[in-house]
Amino acid sequence: MQLADFIVENVEPILVEWEAFARGITPGEKMDALALRGHAGEILLATVRDMRSVQSAAERSARSRGHRHEGDIASLNGAPEQHAIGRLGSGFDLLELVSEYRALRASVLRLWHESGSPPRDGDVYDVTRFNESIDQSLAKAVSSYTKRVDQSRELFLAILGHDLRNPLNSIAMSASLLPHLVQPATEAIHVASQISTDAEVMARMISDLLDYTRTRLGAGMPVSPTSMDLGTLCRELHNEFRSGHPKRQIDLHMEGDLHGRWDADRLRQAISNLLGNAIQHSPESAPVELRLRGETSDVVFAVFNGGLPIPPGELSNIFDPLVRGSSAEHPQANRPGSIGLGLYIAREIVESHGGTVTVTSSQASGTSFTVRLPREFVLHSGQPILDEQHLQTM
Question: For residue 369, what is the enclosing H or E element?
Fold first, then answer.
């Protein structure tokens, strides 16, 4: 049997092995079957189309030297690029992406060999065409992955530079005024207060940046769980947000046992990010609610806000890092100290506690971020690229 025909008739067994391999990679542990398969099926069928395409001697020679022709681009049909971008968003690093292709190549050739198909004179040619197509697909995936990383880096630097500029200018101007103040105690206090506030804004940005860097390096969000009462923490946050936003209606509802083993500082950060996001993206007239409910083995809390719903096109990537809404119906207001990482960091903190976070949004019911935290969980960290001593100093 020709290799291309074998692949078409055995797509499912090949995808089962692909899925099992992807699940063994750290970011794939919590992904469902559909997400694990990604665009593997499309990549396989694109490979078959490429293998069956007519190829001249000149084209074979060009491909053997790594050159592309228009047929390569048409047959692959964008599947490698989409798969690479999806894996990047799921936390796969470049080596893990490449290892998927290595595993796919090995699975196909092994299953074909184990099928007992009688040897043919064209088998070597089939394997050559298969390897060329897989190599071409891998090259496009790597190119797409690195291009998206570069774009994210440039976007991040642009956002960081823009958002840091205002507090830096304010600090510089306030500091330059202090020597010229003769006896203006009130003005001096105000200027000093402004410097302190802007410094806190910048500190939040830097803290978010370091948390983002840790997670993208594969080290995971560091947590130190201890016994705590989530209700006490949320009452403190509720009072803080009501004081900071006196014109807003911010409600707190709690029921059941809210005790568990979590990292109080990290959960404070996550809930604060979710509350800040709810206030930022809803009108002053819309209520914001923090609801907590203790269940048998979990504690569930939700942050709700009214106002315009999140556009469907933005809902799927709402937790992605460095993403800010751009819809005309859902404009983004800048929150002091925000560089577009708040929801991403909140999700990473929840997942580092073995929990889940989901979001629903509609015109009728508003927007709600719901977090489910197990009372007890097995502490799990990623596979750090940097050594632990380096990470602790970041």
Answer: strand 366-374
Tell me which amino acid residue 102 is: R
DSSP class of residue 290 equals: E
User: Closest Cα to residue 254, out of 300, 314, 203?
Assistant: 300
Residue 331 CA to residue 333 CA, distance in Å, equals 7
The predicted-structure confidence for 307-319, as pLDDT tens digits, reads as follows: 888 887 778 778 8
* Neighbour tally for 209: CB within 10 Å: 15
Q: How many CB atoms lie within 10 A of CB 167?
A: 20
Residue spans of alpha helices (H) in 178-311? 185-216, 230-244, 264-280
Q: 205, 339 in Cβ contact below 8 A?
A: yes
What SS3 state is found at 184?
coil
Dig out the tokens for 198 from the structure: 């802007």
Q: How far is CA 165 from the centre of its chain?
A: 26
What does the angle CA 177 – CA 182 – CA 186 come to, to the nearest 5 degrees? Answer: 75
Higher-confidence residue of 117 and 175: namely: 117
Q: What percent of the chain has pLDDT above 70?
A: 73
Burial of 314-353, coded b for 16+ CB within 10 Å and e otherwise, reads: beeebbbbbbebeeeebeeeebbbbbbbbbbbbbbbbbbb
